[in-house]
Amino acid sequence: MYSQKIFPLLFLLAIFLFVPVLFAQKVNSQTVRRLIYEVKPNEWYLTQAEFWQKETQKNPKNPIAWRNYYLAVRYATHSIYPASL
Question: How far apart are CA 11 and CA 25, in angstroms?
């Protein structure tokens, strides 16, 4: 009888603890495409610039990291969207 009352509470607790983990958006470094192909919000370019900067510091001879870092910084500073979006 006691376990019948506790099981639903434990089930609800598990749902509230693990569901946000499942839906948490993990932001990874992604390839920064040219603006003629794809336009993203300014915050996305700022985030990508941080990720790619770290990658260039870890591996300074990686040309892909440098290209993505350059484009992310360029598009973050010259974005058609304001930073408040």
Answer: 24
